[in-house]
Design a protein that fits this description.
By secondary structure, the protein is an alpha+beta fold. The chain has helices spanning 45-58, 80-86, 100-104, 134-143, 169-182, 216-229, 231-238, 338-346, and strands spanning 16-18, 24-26, 34-41, 67-73, 91-95, 112-116, 122-127, 161-163, 185-186, 189-193, 196-200, 206-207, 209-212, 244-246, 249-254, 260-264, 277-282, 287-289, 292-293, 301-302, 309-313, 318-320, 323-331, 334-336.
């Protein structure tokens, strides 16, 4: 059998695929858990059942908070119904009829199982012809996996910056009052289909209402306080000069509606590739739940103080936990720079018809490229 190109410790390539039941899989969203990728190929089914037995014993199909497993099949299954009954959030079977995924992992014609850590780096790569026996080696490995929070032996902290006192408290109250008076609209998320980015609403993944701030004077006040109180910290601690800002909106996570936002990254779609840093400014504090989690760094929660901001890379996997009581109000822009604005302009061609196109007319500008902060 050929050697796999995946070396232990390597970050593995991401992929998107469909399961045999038609569900979608995006590997990058599975970060923050142990991930098992079993490439069964198109070989003997009896052998496959033996080699995959440790996975079926270690993974609970109805749960995915600690470990998730995907069995990648090169040949169409004889009985999709049987696999569907075995499937769930923690276990799925992926159809890979052209071996495109297997080839990227060195598993084309070479059945093997890879185990990935919560940052999607390979910690095991066990071929089915492993000298000590694939099933036995895999069984011992899976039995010894620690919790996600103990996955690297020390407590991890996400690379998130918390900056207090970004907005005046009176401005926070004004924004909350404006939202309560005007109300918000159901907020979707960007999703790529057939090479085009569109806004999709799926309450199982996100439930939030947004109010766009359109008053020029209020936008100017928001911009001025962000430039004076937030941008210097972003430049100092992240070594990034933000000159533009995407979105002026007040968002509301409402416990009466089950507000939450499932794990995601903010820059993986064509309509969002320009985004560099996400900003979450809390406008109130009288609520329970609705905290940030960065799954690649454990289950620790993060929350900005009232009027303060959490700033983090748009490439970081994150989620907003369900709100348990009250309402959480927040101002949620994205920061980017001049080169990113050019990319945003170019990506207009990749937006689905009906999506708002970007015009580089300066409405998103925070500071001039050469202005001192």
């Amino acid at each position: 059998m050929s050697a796999s190109p995946i070396r232990l410790g390597d970050p593995v390539p991401w992929f998107g695929a469909r399961t045999v039941t038609g569900a979608s899989v995006d590997l990058h969203v599975d970060a923050g858990r142990w991930v098992v990728l079993a490439f069964a190929g198109a070989g003997d089914r009896a052998q496959a059942a033996r080699e995959l037995a440790p996975i079926l014993a270690a993974v609970r199909p109805d749960r995915d908070d600690r470990i998730v497993a995907y069995v990648v099949l090169a040949a169409p299954p004889d009985a999709v119904g049987d696999l569907a009954r075995m499937s769930g959030p923690g276990l799925a079977f992926i159809a890979d009829p052209d071996d495109a995924i297997a080839e990227r992992y060195g598993a084309k014609g070479a059945p093997r199982t890879l185990v990935l850590d919560p940052m999607l780096r390979a910690v095991a790569n066990i071929a089915w012809d492993h000298q000590g026996g694939h099933a036995e080696a895999l069984r011992g490995l899976l039995a010894g996996l620690p919790s996600v929070d103990e996955s690297c032996g020390v407590t991890l902290t996400a690379p998130a910056l918390i900056v207090p006192r970004v907005f005046d408290f009176a401005l926070c109250d004004l924004l909350v009052g404006l939202y309560d008076q005007m109300g918000g609209e159901d907020s979707g998320f960007l999703f790529d289909q057939h090479g085009k980015t569109a806004t999709v609403i799926d309450h199982s993944l996100k439930r939030r209402q947004d109010l766009v701030i359109a008053v020029p004077e209020l936008r100017a006040t928001l911009r001025e306080q962000i430039v004076r109180r937030l941008l210097p910290a972003v430049e100092r601690y992240f070594q990034f000069r933000a000159t533009r800002m995407d979105r002026y909106l007040v968002s509301c996570y409402d416990s009466a509606l089950g507000g939450h936002f499932f794990r995601h990254r903010d820059n993986v779609n064509a309509g969002a590739q320009h985004r560099r840093f996400a900003v979450s400014i809390n406008l109130n504090g009288d609520y329970d739940g609705c905290d940030l989690i960065f799954p690649e760094f454990g289950r620790r929660t993060y929350r900005a103080p009232v009027a303060g901001a959490v700033v983090f890379s748009c490439g970081a996997l994150h989620e907003v936990t369900p709100i348990r009581r009250g309402r959480r109000y927040a101002f949620l822009p994205f920061l980017y720079g001049e080169g990113d604005a050019e990319l945003r302009q170019a990506n207009n061609a990749r937006l689905r018809q009906g999506e708002t196109h970007y015009a580089a007319d300066g409405h998103d500008r925070l500071v001039a490229a050469n202005d001192p902060l």
